[in-house]
Design brief:
The protein has a single domain (2-19, 31-118, 159-308), classed as Rhomboid-like fold (Up-down Bundle). 43% of the residues lie in helices and 13% in strands. The protein is built from 8 helices and 11 strands. It has helices at 80-97, 103-113, 117-122, 160-167, 174-218, 230-243, 265-277, 287-308, and strands spanning 2-3, 10-11, 28-29, 44-45, 52-53, 67-72, 127-130, 142-146, 152-153, 248-253, 256-264. Strand 10 and strand 11 (256-264) form a beta hairpin. It is elongated.
């Protein structure tokens, strides 16, 4: 789901695959949306034809972000689940996803494991059709491919529903995964401190799925994979802004990297949310996932504040991990 802050924090991010050679053991997928040539064809946590939560420098169509460095909001307990989630995301990216020997292998990996809105909508895996032909498959998602003469199901055994879950742990680039993990650490440890380890894990995973579904509903016919942790992290950010709106966050605002500001969380996260509304879909950032996740997290936090007195006062220490 994308870089979270206006293209910085990994929202679901989309890309388009350029025409690639066909491997004898696999299909070479060609771009369905020529206008997206030059954008990596995978969802990196951003909103677009292919969505992915992506973290990195703002791309075309993105509003310049603000970059949080740390917050002044001490915790009482080690954020064990937050640290595990960070470790798992980094391990999956560097141990499984990176590096791929070429763009074809990368595209195939993402279509095999990541969620695709059209697949969820139809309940069936994508079908590859001969490139340049008018071939169509009724009731199925079709993607042009080189090197074939008849339509074929690319990954017939793919579990479409599990792919939504898998997408939350896949990223499109080093900056994407590291940027998302920065946001998760800054805002996740405090939320975990309040909810406890199990409660926080439930909020993160359920919220991430909700954020993905919001994106999917807004892009039912998209055949581009979406991936990234930004949707789930946006949920955490939504809870944070409700519970600690006045907590100070050390923030860098490009291009003034040499002059960090200590801003209230309501300003930093509120600005991030507003930036989502002005980020163009062509940027490859899944802003719908960010918006949906953020609102879901804020709603959960408001309900807990009204019914259970959150955030609860906990004796804290300066220990941050």
């Amino acid at each position: 789901m994308v870089g979270i802050l206006g293209g910085m924090v990994g929202p679901l991010h989309a890309g388009a695959h350029g025409a690639v050679r066909v491997d004898p053991q696999a299909y070479g997928l060609a771009p369905r949306y020529p206008r997206e040539q030059g954008v990596r064809a995978t969802a990196r946590g951003g909103v677009g034809t292919v969505s992915t939560l992506r973290m990195g420098p703002p791309g075309k169509g993105t509003v310049r972000p603000v970059i949080p460095i740390r917050d002044d909001n001490p915790t009482a307990h080690r954020a064990v689940v937050t640290l595990i989630l960070i470790a798992v995301n980094i391990a999956i990216y560097f141990g499984i996803q990176y590096p791929k020997h070429d763009s074809n292998a990368e595209a195939l990996f993402e279509y095999k494991w990541a969620g695709v809105p059209c697949e969820v909508h139809t309940g069936k895996p994508v079908v590859v059709v001969p490139e340049g032909s008018a071939a169509a498959v009724s009731g199925r998602c079709a993607i042009p491919a080189a090197g074939i003469t008849v339509p074929q199901t690319a990954f017939p055994h793919k579990n479409i529903w599990l792919s939504i879950f898998f997408s939350m742990f896949l990223h499109a680039s080093i900056l994407h995964v590291l940027g998302n993990m920065l946001f998760l650490w800054i805002f996740g440890n405090n939320v975990e401190d309040q909810l406890g380890r199990i409660g926080f894990l439930v909020l993160y995973l359920v919220g991430g799925i909700v954020a993905s579904l919001v994106y999917i509903v807004g892009n039912l016919d998209s055949t581009s994979p979406f991936l990234g942790a930004s949707g789930a992290i946006a949920v955490v950010m939504g809870a944070y802004i409700v519970w600690w709106p006045r907590a100070r966050v050390l923030t860098v605002i490009p291009p003034f990297f040499f002059l960090p500001f200590r801003l209230p969380a309501v300003v930093v996260l509120g600005l991030w949310f507003v930036l989502q509304l002005f980020t163009q879909s062509s940027s490859g950032v899944a802003t719908l996932a960010h918006i949906g996740g953020f609102l879901f997290g804020a709603l959960v936090a408001l309900v807990l504040a009204r019914t259970a007195g959150f955030p609860r006062r906990i004796p804290t220490t300066r220990l941050r991990f």
